[in-house]
Structure formats: structure tokens, C-alpha cells
Amino acid sequence: MSELIKWFEKRRETKALSTIQRHLALTTGIVEDLEKALQAAINDDEKEVKRCVKRVASGEEEADALRRKVMDEISKGELSPIDRADLMDLVKRVDMVADWTRESTRVLHALSMKEVPDSIKEGLMEMIRSIKECAASLQRCVNKMMSKPEEALQAADTVEREEEKVDDLHEKARMLLVKEDLKKIGVAIMISQLFEAMEMIADSCEDACDQVRVIMVRK
């Protein structure tokens, strides 16, 4: 068993571990707010869109603050340089999930859903549901690493399967963009950027789980 896992087991109630868990919960909540913002945009509820976008922006800023706090706690610990680097890399990868969620809301807020075909709206909603499950699976993966390392790899495999679903949905979205007769090139560009940003959320989840695998197998 790696020194990192022993570190977790001996310090379950430490400030660093508690902060990592808060960071994960916050990140998952940000993704859920993106789903709500997207649904509100489709429903033409501008006030709700603004509320959701504001929550995502605030949550992403809080996630950044928690990331810095975690880094500070890790730097004061007893870990070896390699284990410290592994854990810091994991936290940074998780933080990218929040960053790409924030970017998705920026694009969404600039896009007029009235000009988006229904087929693409349905594709967006299907994609965000898979992304939300991907983020939730990531949270379970990292939490398993903290409590039951042997189950963390199984959870990582679940994240990978969810990310593959998102990739498939993104491919379908590209086909929809070609099929639909969009009158404005700007709208087509914004839709494409939204799909790309959303896919990066799932990619970031997979990247974080790859780092969990590194931590599990390094020693």
C-alpha cells in the first residue's frame, strides 16, 4: 500500500482531507447548476439562467480557493515529494472540471436558444445528463480512494464508461450541426463551442480518474 493511502487512513479527519471532499462536492454541484442553466435557457427563463450562471461563477471561484487551501495543507504534510506531487495533480485535475463548467456557462449565456433547433437542444440536454453522471462518478471514485482503495479502480472504470458516452453524444452533435440548416454562422459557432466546452468537462473527469489510477498503482 502506498504511503499516500496510509496518509489518508491515518488522517481521515484532517483539514486537508476535509477540504478535498468539500472541493469535490462543490465541483459536482457546479455541474448540476450547469444542467439547470441549460434547462432554463431552453425554457426561455432568462432570470433563472442568470441565477444559475451566477451560482456557477461563484462556485468556480470557491473551488479555486479550496484548491489553493488543499495545496497549502498538502505542502505542510509528511508525504514524500512523489506522493505530494501525485495528490496535487489530482486536485488540479478535479479543479479543471469546475473551470470547464464555468466556461460552458459563459458560452451558454451568450447563445440565444430561440435560434437553436429542437434537435440540438435535445442533444445538449442528453449530453449534460451524461456529464452530470460522469462528475458524480468522479466524486465516488475519489471518495473510494480515501476510504476503500480497492474499490477506487472500479469507480474509475465507471467514469471512463460515462466519458465514452459523452464522446458518442458529441459525435452525434456534430452530425446535427451539419444536418440542421442554421441561418446564422455565429449561432452555429456558439453551439459548437458549447458542445466542445461540455465535452471537456467529461474529459477532465476522466483525467482526474486516470490520476487516481496512478496513485493506486505507483507502489
List the helices and strands and how they pair.
Blueprint: H1 3-10, H2 15-42, H3 46-75, H4 81-110, H5 118-147, H6 149-179, H7 185-217
What does this structure look like?
- The structure is a single chain.
- With 219 residues, the protein is mainly alpha-helical.
- Helix content is 87%, strand content 0%.
- It is built from seven helices and no strands.
- It has helices at 3-10, 15-42, 46-75, 81-110, 118-147, 149-179, 185-217.
- The longest helix has 33 residues, at 185-217.
- The N and C termini lie close together (7 Å).
- The mean pLDDT is 87.
Helix content: over 70%
CATH class: Mainly Alpha
How does the major sheet shape up? none
Kindly state the number of beta strands: 0
What is the CATH topology descriptor? Answer: Methane Monooxygenase Hydroxylase, Chain G, domain 1
Low-confidence stretches at least 5 residues in length (pLDDT < 50)?
Answer: none
Q: List the total number of helices.
A: 7
Order of helices and strands: HHHHHHH
